[in-house]
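User: Can you recover a sequence for this backbone? Please restate the input before giving your answer.

Assistant: Of course. Working from this structure:
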């Protein structure tokens, strides 16, 4: 067994402050595709309490060639330092000194998407979390914050654009057709926020005037020819800049803000100070090539990365265990922003749905971890839904508990205390405590305990006393390394509905609390007695998804139908629809006769579909069936085929039972969608409802199948065109094949649009290993492009019917691809590894087949620590 198969974990409890600090960094990059020379001039000083004899240990390695080291201007001979696989060690250094390091790297050969690499001939960087050590030897950790000056030298013809962090301080021509640009960033930052971009790029410019009257220059750099697709990103950025000023009184601090869109990027985007680098899919948009979802996603991610300027850059995390400090907080801020710009209820439904489908599954799997992990082998593995999205929910609970005004005051206190520092989650909670007076000691458990709490509620109604008692009991199942859990502290938002559908005023201990209130749950079991309740109510629980918990309440069918008809909180109304859907699927899974219950559900859904007083986007969400991953959550062992039978049967029953309403609503929507394309929330909602209805009608009416094909061919916007493709790929039909052929013929020169083509097929009901193999050999597929790898292999592995075929060929395909991809991009390979999380819940046949492939992966020579960590935990070896 090779050493790489036993990498050692890093523990939060072992954190120690750095032995040395680097107040100033001067960098010079002499760019060349295969031999880039990097010269770093570092001003270092020994940290307080560091012993005088402590060696200087710098991170580096991974194809990093050391050319020269100078200490205080004197060249060090090889016997004055030591180079290991991952470090440069200088044993004898003074208290304060300068260090000049020259390294040589090969960006063209770097396929990892980390460090300095090339995309379409352009140079770009990704330093988070530990990419800087691929460029030069450095203290590559977030608590070492420095002032950076960066000089970039490159060929003026092939690299006319030279960008880095901060403000441009000098530029000019050099001999030999070269030119240079010098950038100075006045704000201290950790090296993970360093960025460099150089290449032949088009640019779109704009400006924003801050509330204090400063004019900020805005620039978005893209591949030439894509300039016309930047306006939505610019508009989103300017809205975010204004919103941050209005809501949190946070004004942008540099003279310019730049975004660069690149085609090869492992993540969505990166918040480097003043120079955000984006995956092109999250910048470029026009109606012909981007869907409504793309427009919304761009708006959200542009805002997210901009908001990081304060929550992540001006105040950063002390160590990578504190990742949720910046990510959870910034996700919450971009969610507030999106809610203000769009439908708040539908936005919240999307957030809650994602948590329940993705994060809850992560919480119950073999790699379950708190939002602040206690240990890791590979930090890239903790860029997870738990850290980001559950982390956001934890921040939201703080705002719910103390109120928006005190929360804003807490944010202000946070920057007052910690601006320019690298801090911990305790520091954030301290700022919230100082602003609100609330003791967050128990609340801290959300940061340190893994798993999803279960919130069980019982209602006891006493008609004689006109009282209604809610009994709330919380628990949390064991997770790896945490068998016992202490009670969590969270808000449970509730309301009570009368038999006539009206909201019952809430009176608790003679105090009137309106019709919605937040109960503070902090004990294992609590009781709340409501008075002046004359008729038995239907409780509306966990309104607005007030906490990331699993709600257990024994609703009857009639109570769920009541909530679906009358609840004023659209999030709990949506949840009632989901519960009804699950009940119906459960009754149909075994091909049993259609029950009366299902007929009642169909009637209720028909009424909702045709209710034009409801937001069209909300109706589309209700009509969207839950994915198989959500349906099988409570199964052990999992039976995807059985769940699929029930799901498919319900879709057909709903389509037939609501046919007239569907056709009528579809016809009513069409006139309002004629004319120019619009991304107004109301219009996007109508498009979503229209296309959702089309999916139902297509399966039972040939005329609508033909209409779907016609929509694919004649659509004037990508939303409708892609919706039609997603429907057609689920049918074996000549028109499906013709549609796929026409799509490739039309869009083969548009990589982002072709990604949709690959993804639609890999996600379809007809997907198979042979289909994926054919797609991988398509001339427009690039096995080194992270986006292509995701849309094909990740989509297939997230397609339960295809991936979990009982012959195990899906497991073998993904295992083979993981081993192959891991050799050049371990980040993408580790992301694929999470598709095996269901291993422990599978039936014995599939479990054995998956185990064989997982064992093969973990025993592969040279497997990366990131893949090893996930697979070994999945197998139960760690």
């Amino acid at each position: 067994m090779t050493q790489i198969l036993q990498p050692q974990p890093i523990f939060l409890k072992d954190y120690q402050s750095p032995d040395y600090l680097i107040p100033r960094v001067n960098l010079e990059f002499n760019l060349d595709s295969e031999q880039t020379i990097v010269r770093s001039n570092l001003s270092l000083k020994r940290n307080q309490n560091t012993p005088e004899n402590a060696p200087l240990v710098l991170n580096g390695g991974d194809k990093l060639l050391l050319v020269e080291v100078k200490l205080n201007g004197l060249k060090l001979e090889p016997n004055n330092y030591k180079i290991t696989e991952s470090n440069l060690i200088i044993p004898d250094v003074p208290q304060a000194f300068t260090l000049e390091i020259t390294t040589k790297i090969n960006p063209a050969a770097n396929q990892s998407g980390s460090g300095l690499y090339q995309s379409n001939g352009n140079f770009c960087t990704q330093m988070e979390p530990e990419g800087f050590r691929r460029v030069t030897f450095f203290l590559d950790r977030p608590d070492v914050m420095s002032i950076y000056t960066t000089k970039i030298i490159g060929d003026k013809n092939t690299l006319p654009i030279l960008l880095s962090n901060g403000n441009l301080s000098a530029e000019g021509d050099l001999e030999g057709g070269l030119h240079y640009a010098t950038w100075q960033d006045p704000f201290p930052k950790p090296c993970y926020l360093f960025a460099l971009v150089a290449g032949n790029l088009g640019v779109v410019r704009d400006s924003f005037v801050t509330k204090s009257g400063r004019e900020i220059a805005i620039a978005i750099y893209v591949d030439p020819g894509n300039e016309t697709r930047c306006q939505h990103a610019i508009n989103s950025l300017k809205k975010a800049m204004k919103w941050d000023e209005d809501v949190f009184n946070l004004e942008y601090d540099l003279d310019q803000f730049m975004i660069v869109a690149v085609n090869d990027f492992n993540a969505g985007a990166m918040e480097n100070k003043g120079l955000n680098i984006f995956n092109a899919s999250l910048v470029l948009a026009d109606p012909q090539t981007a869907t409504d979802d793309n427009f919304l996603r761009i708006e959200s991610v542009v805002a997210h990365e901009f908001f990081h300027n304060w929550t992540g850059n001006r105040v950063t995390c002390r160590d990578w265990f504190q990742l949720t400090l910046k990510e959870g907080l910034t996700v919450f801020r971009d969610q507030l922003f999106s809610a203000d710009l769009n439908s708040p209820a539908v936005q919240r439904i999307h957030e809650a749905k994602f948590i329940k489908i993705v994060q809850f599954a992560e919480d119950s799997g073999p790699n379950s971890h708190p939002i602040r992990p206690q240990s890791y082998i590979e930090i890239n593995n903790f860029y997870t839904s738990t850290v980001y999205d559950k982390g956001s929910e934890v921040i939201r609970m703080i705002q719910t508990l103390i109120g928006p005004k005190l929360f804003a005051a807490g944010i202000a206190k946070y920057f007052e205390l910690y601006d320019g520092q690298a801090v911990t989650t305790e520091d954030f909670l301290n700022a919230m405590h100082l602003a609100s007076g609330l003791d967050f000691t128990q609340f801290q458990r959300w940061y340190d305990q893994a798993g999803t709490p279960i919130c069980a509620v019982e209602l006891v109604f006493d008609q004689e006393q006109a009282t209604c008692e809610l009994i709330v009991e919380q628990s949390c199942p064991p997770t790896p390394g945490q068998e016992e859990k202490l009670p969590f502290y969270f808000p449970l938002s509730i309301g009570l509905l009368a038999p006539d559908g009206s909201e019952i005023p809430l009176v608790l201990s003679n105090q009137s609390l309106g019709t919605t209130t937040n109960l503070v749950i902090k004990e294992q079991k609590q009781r709340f007695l409501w008075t002046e309740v004359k008729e038995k109510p239907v409780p509306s629980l966990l309104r607005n998804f007030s906490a990331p918990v699993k709600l257990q309440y024994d609703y009857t069918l009639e109570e769920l139908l009541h909530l679906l008809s009358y609840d004023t909180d659209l999030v709990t109304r949506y949840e009632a629809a989901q519960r009804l859907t699950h009940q119906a699927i459960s009754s149909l899974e075994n091909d049993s006769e259609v029950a009366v219950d299902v007929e009642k559900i169909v009637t209720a859904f028909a009424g909702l579909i045709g209710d034009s007083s409801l937001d069209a986007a909300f109706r589309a969400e209700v009509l969207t069936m839950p994915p198989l991953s959500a349906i099988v959550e409570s199964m052990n062992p999992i039976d995807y085929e059985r769940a699929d039978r029930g799901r498919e049967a319900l879709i057909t029953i709903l389509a037939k039972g609501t046919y007239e309403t569907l056709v009528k609503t579809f016809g009513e929507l069409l006139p309002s969608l004629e004319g120019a394309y619009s991304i107004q929330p109301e219009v996007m909602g109508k498009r979503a409802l229209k296309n959702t209805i089309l999916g139902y009608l297509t399966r039972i009416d040939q005329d609508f199948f033909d209409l779907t094909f016609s929509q694919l061919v004649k659509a004037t916007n990508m939303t409708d065109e892609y919706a039609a493709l997603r429907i057609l790929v689920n049918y074996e039909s000549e028109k499906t094949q013709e549609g796929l052929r026409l799509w490739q013929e039309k869009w083969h020169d548009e990589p982002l649009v072709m990604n949709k083509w690959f993804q639609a097929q890999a996600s379809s009901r007809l997907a198979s290993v042979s289909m994926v193999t054919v797609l991988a050999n398509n001339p427009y597929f690039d096995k080194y492009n992270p986006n292509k790898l995701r849309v094909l292999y990740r989509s297939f592995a997230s397609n339960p019917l295809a991936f979990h075929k009982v012959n195990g060929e899906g497991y073998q395909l993904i295992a083979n691809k993981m081993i192959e991809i891991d050799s050049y991009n371990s980040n993408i390979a580790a992301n694929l590894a999470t598709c095996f999380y269901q291993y422990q819940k599978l039936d014995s046949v599939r479990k054995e087949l998956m185990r064989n492939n997982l064992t093969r992966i973990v025993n592969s020579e040279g497997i990366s620590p990131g893949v090893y960590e996930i697979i070994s935990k999945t197998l139960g070896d760690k």
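That completes the design. The longest strand covers residues 178-189.
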